[in-house]
Fold Flavin reductase.
Amino acid sequence: MHPVSSSGHLNGGNGQMNAMAKPPVGAAQFTAAMGLAATGVSVVTTDGPLGRFGLTVSAVSSVSAEPPLVLCCINRKSPAVAAVEGNGVFAVNLLSAAHRAYAETFAGRPREGRPFDFSNHDWRDGELGLPLVSDATAIFECEVHDQLDAGTHRIFIGRVVAAHSGAADPLVYCNRAFARIVHHEGN
C-alpha cells in the first residue's frame, strides 16, 4: 500500500525510490500491454461555474459500496480536470454498445459534427444538473469526494448521490478497438 503525501501525490512510503527497486517498464510497453485489457467505455460529464465538459474515459472503477464511491482517471492536460475540480461534481455515463458515436465525439474523433459537442446526442439533466446520456447502460452522479495526481492523470473519487441502471449491454474497448459483449448459450 502506498500512502498519499500531504500534496495528494502517491509516494512509496518515504517519497524516494528504493535503491533495490527495478526501474519501471517503458510507456510504450506498458500501454501495449494495458491495451489488451478489455474495459467499459464511459463519458464523464460535468457542468457548473467552470462550464460543461464531457470526455471519453476507460479508467473507471468502483471504490466502495459503503459509502458508495467510484473513481475516474483523467489526463491532467485535459481542460476537463479543471472543470471537474471547480464544478465539484461529475457523472460517469457507462455507454451501451449503441453509443459508439458518443465515445468517438468525446474522445475528440467524431464521424459527424464537432469534437466534444453535446448538441449531436441525446442528453437529459440529472439530479445534480449534469448532462446524462439518456439511455446509458449505467450512470453514476457524483460529488467530488477526493482527488489526487498519479503520473500523467488526476484520479477523481466521487461520492455517488444517484445511480441509474439500464438493460443494454455495455460498449467495450480492447486492443485499440470498440467491441460489444457476445453472449453464448450454455457452458
